[in-house]
Amino acid sequence: MRRLVQLYLGLVLYGFSMALMIESALGLNPWDVLHQGVASRTPLSIGIVTIATGAVVLLAWVPLRQRPGLGTVSNVVVIGLAVDASLWAISQPDLLAVRIGFMVAGVVLNAVATAAYIGARFGPGPRDGLMTGLVRRSGRSVRMVRTSIEATVLLAGWLLGGTVGVGTVFYAVSIGPLVHLLLPRLTIDERGARPGVGGVVSTRARI
Q1: N or C: which end of the chain has fewer CB within 10 A?
Q2: pLDDT tens profile 6-55
């Protein structure tokens, strides 16, 4: 039960963090640049585009022989719904200082959310699974595969009209160290125990 609660709280928080970065209008992470770019060219909301993109990426798991878990499928649906609900509830601030606050809070909360849903250990998100599947099949390094994927979606999203800016750079340099710091603290073992409370951090949890 603790793992389930953490999974879904993490996914909802992820959608909220996306909304904060979108409303900051200072730049998004590569996948959200793509989501926003596609949404700007269609009548679909960014949440629906996020869900559709996740579903398409999940289909790419088939030839890679990746197996989705509950967290994988939930990731596809819950984040998209959460970001649309969050965008309905908050609006873009006028003051630059507040927009910067939105951007910083968005990145930090995104890291917390990522560590939370990965730490719940119900399976990786579709985009993370695509990366690990390609690493296993190609024999290339995680760094090379992830950089190639994110550079491709960033360029495609920018060409479609997605927002690239200082927030994009801040996310790129901050998210890895933040998740690295938070993941051991939010990883739960099969018995539902956290590190420091009789639990052991699983070495299988990966970003």
Answers
A1: N
A2: 999 999 999 999 999 999 999 999 999 999 999 999 999 999 999 999 99
Helix locations, 41-165, DSSP H: 46-59, 61-64, 70-89, 96-119, 126-138, 142-160
C-alpha angle 53-57-63 in degrees, rounded to nearest 5: 160
Contacts with 90 (C-beta within 8 Å, 6 or more apart), sequence order: 19, 20, 23
Please provide the size of the chain in residues.
Answer: 207
Closest by alpha carbon to 24, among 99, 84, 91?
A: 99
Q: Give the pTM.
A: 0.86
- Structure token pair of residue 127: 């985009």
Q: Which residues contact 197 (CB under 8 A, 6 or more apart)?
A: none
- Token couple for 5: 């609660």
Residue 38: strand, helix, or coil: helix
Distance of alpha carbon 64 from alpha carbon 30, whole angstroms: 22
* Angle separating helix axes 30-40 and 46-59, nearest 10 degrees: 120
